[in-house]
Structure prediction request, 182 residues.
Amino acid sequence: MNTNSKIKFEVPIREQMSKTNAPVYDAIVKSVGFMPNLFATLGLSDNGLNRYISFQNAISSLTNKEKEVINLIVSEVNDCNYCRAAHTVIGKMNGFTDSEAIEIRSGQASFDRKLNALIKLSQDIVNTRGKINQKYLELFFNEGYNQGHLIDVILQIGEKTITNYLHNITQIKIDFPEVPKI
Prediction:
């Protein structure tokens, strides 16, 4: 194998989905109005799309807004252009402005103390691979979060890391408005 050439990943289309993934593909198109390339790429695995969407849609103690905070900061730390773009759009759908999304991606939320604590903890978890600075955990708990929330934060980080790594490896085309790096 020539190590100088880059392997190109093609985004699969509906007809290439397995029996397990096809209904999930159809549900996403019906719900979102299109199939995001990153989700379609999960369909390269016979069970990948179904498995990921089941994980993503599981019940959590975190609000959608809190999940988007985690998605934005984790995507920034993991340097994922696709997820930065997608979660800026989704963050706006959940009430964030463009400037708030940029601020979250920069590692803070001066507009909300509780979300700021969530950002600091999430960023530290990713940066330290879970060997966190206790001050961020104390800040998180002092803002009203509990141990159950902590578990859901870790699960959300894991869920977002999957798609961050998937895009960082495959480099499939971004089908959301791209956002600048900060």
The chain has two domains: 14-56, 64-170. Residues 147-170 form the longest helix (24 residues).
